[in-house]
């Protein structure tokens, strides 16, 4: 076998190894920065796959997101480089003070590793076509509570107050 053929064989086998290399990122909802989830991603993963995994992870773990129509990631942010050495407490304060940078995922075919590095802390904001509304219905008679019920309904974001009153 010539040296040239050996070199080609090595390059082909190395390409496969790069695809399998993993790194972790920690993700949290922007509205709940203390709740963290770990996601493993490959070095060759694109944003299409990452956004789908983020959506699936949060949909499984948050009842508020289950069953929503058109649920998608609206924005991703991470701590700015100058905040890289912040403690967890300081990071949550930085998040509240908006000392974060946006992650651009408009080109969903871009590789995740171009914008994220191992152990990055990422905050996620979702949007959907509808939302869950928790309703507490109380009916009192003569000073006593005679009926109380709590239920959730899913409503379209474009629902007007008049329509919502008719539904409830």
Please outline the major beta sheet. Answer: 5 strands, mixed
The oligomeric state is single chain
Look at the structure and give the mean pLDDT: 75
Supply the number of helical segments: 4
Q: Can you list the strand order of the major beta sheet?
A: 2-1-5-3-4
Instruction: Work out the count of structural domains.
Output: 2
CATH superfamily annotation of the largest domain: Phosphatidylinositol 3-kinase Catalytic Subunit, Chain A, domain 1
CATH class group of the largest domain: Alpha Beta
Helicity, as a percent range: 25-40%
Give an overview in words.
With 168 residues, the protein is of the alpha+beta class. It folds into 2 domains: 3-128, Roll (Ubiquitin-like (UB roll)); 131-167, no CATH class. 29% of the residues lie in helices and 37% in strands. It is built from 4 helices and 7 strands; from the N terminus they run αββαβαββββα. It has helices at residues 3-20, 47-61, 88-96, 161-167, and strands at 22-29, 32-42, 72-79, 100-102, 121-127, 130-141, 144-156. A 5-stranded mixed sheet has the order 2-1-5-3-4, with helices on both faces.
């Amino acid at each position: 076998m010539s040296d040239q053929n050996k070199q080609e064989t090595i390059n082909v086998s190395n390409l496969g190894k790069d695809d399998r290399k993993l790194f972790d990122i920690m993700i949290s909802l922007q509205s709940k920065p203390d709740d963290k989830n770990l996601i493993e991603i490959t070095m060759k993963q694109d944003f299409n796959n990452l956004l789908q995994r983020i959506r699936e992870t949060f949909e499984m773990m948050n009842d508020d997101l289950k069953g929503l129509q058109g649920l998608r990631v609206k924005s991703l942010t991470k701590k700015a480089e100058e905040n890289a050495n912040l403690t967890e407490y300081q990071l949550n304060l930085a998040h509240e003070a908006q000392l974060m940078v946006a992650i651009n995922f408009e080109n969903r075919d871009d590789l995740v590793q171009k914008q994220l590095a191992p152990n990055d802390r990422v905050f996620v904001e979702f949007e959907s076509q509808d939302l869950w509304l928790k309703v507490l219905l109380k009916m009192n008679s003569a000073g006593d509570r005679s009926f109380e019920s709590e239920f959730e309904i899913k409503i379209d974001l474009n629902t007007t107050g008049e329509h919502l009153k008719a539904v409830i």
